[in-house]
Amino acid sequence: MKKPTRIEFRDGAEVKADGPQNESVATKLIALALEEPDLFHNRMNDAYTTVAVEGRHETIPVRSGEFKRLLAWKFYQAEDKAAQPQALTAAIHTLEAIAVHEKSRKEVHRRFASHDGAIYLNLANPEREIVKISPTAWSVIASANAPVRFLNLKGMLPLPDPVCGGTLESLRKLANVTDDDWALFIGYALGCFLESGPYPILALLGEAAAGKSTLTRLVKALIDPAEPMAKTLPTDERDLMIQAESGHVLAFDNVSRLDEVMSDALCRLATGGGLSTRSLYSDRDQTIFHGARPIVLNSITEVMGRGDLMSRAIRVEVPPLRERKPEAAYWAEFQATHAGILGALCDAAVVALQEVPDNDWAPDVRMVDFALFVERGEVVLGLEPESFVRAYEANQTVANDAVVEQSAVALAVMAFASHQLDEWEGTTTDLLNALTAYASEQTRKSREWPETAKGLSNALKRLRPNLRRAGIEVKELDRKDPITRRTLLSVFKAQK
């Protein structure tokens, strides 16, 4: 007697349990996806695949709507029917597991990447072309020929193909900065070519209607165009992390204040720290961003009052506009010359990548790697040798003076130290009592003035680098006060 055929329902479709039709829809979807050989994961175990779409190569996350639509379309082309949502979900979960446990690890990038001594710039154009910048030359190549993978996210805008032998003359006319600050401005733009940072924060300060917002958008459009060009500064770390994940240059318009949380987050983002948050719909999983991003912000008043943030900044005073152009005419002029400007920056990046003989000299600035990279390429930018570093060091000195002048504690310590003939020693409580003579009653009643020794200790930890640059050293000693057994402090004039 013939064995009856057993009927089952899988993924919402009727299939025969015996014979070749036993393959489920999810399994077929997985097989279709694996026809693309480039399935991989990054260091955070996020799964990606690089697929050929309309003659170009696209790298997309496996857990994305774009990949889900692509997989559904492939199944429809192969089977002439729709794949059920449950099957698509099961297939994607399985492909993520395959990518993490069986496939190689590769990193994905947005606008810039580095590999084997070269910099790669994602033009994000319809052809998905990439600029390869090596220590000898630069050229435009197809994404399929690049050893790095780029994501082309929603909102990213294309860069023009750079022009060999381009100049910066038109950018100088468009950028409303003084001649003294031009080296800082164009040097910052070149420093954005570093893929991993660290990067100073470009802080544009000026009166209302000075063109600060336009200048902010100009930096973004020059290096990493996207819609919108400039955004409002986020109010929490989660939103800041999302923006860092989706772009290279972060541009923030009309910043009016920075609280301690956001100030610390910007510090980490400038030098390459980490930001993390709980993943949606999960109590235990975390979404983590680790890296650095160039940051541009503008404000009317000084918002970076804290020394740790100020030391990471390049402050540029935007002068009043001498001539106003219609918005459309301004951006038309930029678009017409953008390719040449980008070509000039690529030329400078080639030289900046070249090795120089080892020496012990290093500029007296926070972002040394950034400064040295720009210094090597500055001559190609039309700058005098060492002009960027000199301008950067002077800018840091001015910023340090601003931090000291805005801090009641720093001013009191400076005044106290100026009246000491030699080194002073005592506990933090002793120092707090001594400083009261150098602060007005109004200052002592303000929120900024520390009420306890612990409060003074915390303030001094932040101010020590600024006080040191100003010529005053405050340090903890290895011995304790014989009566209170508290750690002793020493205040003395230091070598600048």
Describe the structure.
The structure is a single chain. The protein has 496 residues and is an alpha+beta fold. The protein folds into 4 domains: 7-101, no CATH class; 108-150, no CATH class; 169-400, P-loop containing nucleotide triphosphate hydrolases (Rossmann fold); 407-493, no CATH class. It has helices at 25-33, 65-79, 85-101, 169-174, 179-191, 212-223, 237-246, 260-271, 307-310, 327-352, 368-377, 387-406, 408-418, 428-435, 441-444, 453-469, and strands at residues 7-10, 13-16, 38-41, 47-53, 56-61, 108-109, 112-115, 118-122, 129-133, 138-142, 149-150, 201-205, 250-252, 274-278, 286-290, 295-299, 313-317, 424-427, 472-480, 487-493. The strands form 7 sheets. Strands 7-8-9-10 form a 4-stranded antiparallel sheet, with helices on one face. Strands 13-16-12-17 form a 4-stranded parallel sheet, with helices on both faces. It has a 3-stranded antiparallel sheet with strand order 3-4-5. A hairpin with a 7-residue loop joins strand 14 (274-278) and strand 15 (286-290). The longest helix has 26 residues, at 327-352. Residues 1-7, 16-22 and 280-284 have low confidence and may be disordered.
Features:
single chain; 496 residues; alpha+beta; Rossmann fold; 4 domains; 16 helices; 19% strand
Distance between the termini: 100 Å
Strand content: 15-25%
Q: Find the CATH superfamily of the largest domain.
A: P-loop containing nucleotide triphosphate hydrolases
**Helix residue percentage:** 25-40%
Radius of gyration: 28 Å
Number of helices: 16
* Count of distinct structural domains: 4
Which residue ranges are poorly predicted, with pLDDT under 50 across at least 5 consecutive positions? 1-7, 16-22, 280-284
The biggest beta sheet, please?
A: 4 strands, antiparallel
Task: Report the average pLDDT across residues.
Answer: 87
Query: Per CATH, what is the topology of the largest domain?
Result: Rossmann fold
Q: In which order are the strands of the major sheet placed?
A: 7-8-9-10
Shape: globular
- Please name the CATH architecture of the largest domain: 3-Layer(aba) Sandwich
How many beta-strand segments?
20
Structural class: alpha+beta
Question: What is the level 1 CATH name of the largest domain?
Answer: Alpha Beta
